Amino acid sequence: DSLVLVFDVSSASITSRLEDLASMGISVTTILHPATYLNKILIGSADGRLQLWNIRTNQLIYTFKGWGSPVASLAAAPALDIVAVGMQSGRIAVHNLKLDQTVMTLTQDGPVTALSFRTDG
Q1: If you ran DSSP here, which 8-state letter would residue 69 be given?
Q2: Long-range contacts: 95-103, Cβ < 8 Å, 24+?
Q3: Are 41 and 20 contacting, i.e. CB atoms less than 8 angstroms apart?
Q4: Which of 4, 32, 69, 90 lies 20 to 30 A from 84 at CA?
Q5: Under a CB-based contact definition with an 8 Å cutoff, are residues 94 and 104 in contact?
Q6: What residues does 3 pair with on adjacent strands?
């Protein structure tokens, strides 16, 4: 099942539930909270789509059509609105969430299981 539960760590209680994901055909593979996106999470799915959700209102904000390969990992860039999307196919897309535009793509052999950005030049 694709159920996402959001917990308040201080009270150890569930504050939000995203339960309609499976009925929307979303099989969650990874989740990211982009910096400065208050109460928002980005969900990567097995069909390659990304979805931006408001976890305070449980509303789907936007669906990114994706790249046709399961999303294996997500990483927020130091630059606002930019994320890296790692896929099972070995493709990496650096994507601008605000403009819904891919900035660049890279490829590696094998699935992209983890991503990060460096700021030290």
Answers
A1: S
A2: 95/50, 95/64, 97/34, 97/42, 97/52, 97/64, 100/62, 100/64
A3: no
A4: 4
A5: yes
A6: none
The answer to whether the CB of 108 falls within 8 A of the CB of 59 is no
Please say whether the beta carbons of 60 and 51 come within 8 A.
yes
- Convert the pLDDT of each residue in 16-33 to its tens digit: 888 878 888 889 999 999
Mean pLDDT score of the chain: 93
Question: Do the beta carbons of residue 47 and residue 27 sit within 8 Å?
Answer: yes
Task: Determine the Cα–Cα distance for residues 94 and 97; give it in Å rounded to an integer.
Answer: 10
pTM of the model: 0.91
For 1-121, where are the alpha helices, taking DSSP H only?
none
Alpha-carbon distance 87 to 94, whole Å?
11
Q: Using the CB atoms, write b or e for 53-82: b if 16+ within 10 Å.
A: bbbeeeebeebbebbebbbbbbbbbeeeeb
